[in-house]
Write a structure and sequence with these properties.
Length: about 170
């Protein structure tokens, strides 16, 4: 399930980075925006391991007090902006998923700011290994020219949809 969840959050964050909020964040964080958003997506998918519809305010509180500080070394250039970025990202995710929990998420994030700062300042906090960046992989096996066409026509791919793409 983690792979599906990871792919889902990657798509949601890609939509955030292509959306109307991204230019403001690019100006604010520069090249650190991509790293910060990738970190948030990783922690949401791999540490919190919950689909957006299942996340409530209590989960976001734990996310801010424990999980996110455990993934940060404390010297990242975006550390002071990561909570604001999380709030904006979660707002985007709520809109993209059609969820009505945005107000609860915003309230929980606002309430969790101090817990995040305490967690990040704690020298004895548990540290998780930094997320590994995995290469993009093809979601399904490659279709060969002589394989049956996946559209279900019964023809070979080279005689069906491959030819449609020749234009």
């Amino acid at each position: 399930m983690t792979t599906k969840l990871h792919d889902r959050y990657r798509l949601l964050t890609a939509g955030f980075l292509d959306g109307p909020r991204a230019p403001v964040w690019r100006e604010r964080l520069g090249s650190g925006l991509d790293d910060a958003v990738a970190l948030l997506a990783h922690v949401l998918a791999n540490d919190l391991t919950m689909a957006p519809k299942d996340i409530d305010g209590e989960h976001l509180g734990g996310f801010l007090s424990t999980l996110l500080p455990a993934r940060l070394a404390g010297n990242e250039p975006y550390r002071n902006d990561i909570v604001d970025l999380l709030e904006d990202l979660m707002s985007h995710i709520g809109e993209a998923e059609g969820l009505s929990t945005q107000w609860e998420w915003t309230t929980a994030i606002d309430a969790g700011r101090d817990a995040f700062n305490r967690g990040l300042a704690d020298p004895d906090r548990s540290m998780l290994a930094p997320p590994r960046h995995e290469p993009d992989r093809r979601p399904a096996a490659k279709i060969g020219r002589n394989d049956p066409c996946p559209c279900g026509s019964g023809n070979k791919y080279k005689r069906c949809c491959l030819r449609l793409g020749d234009g």
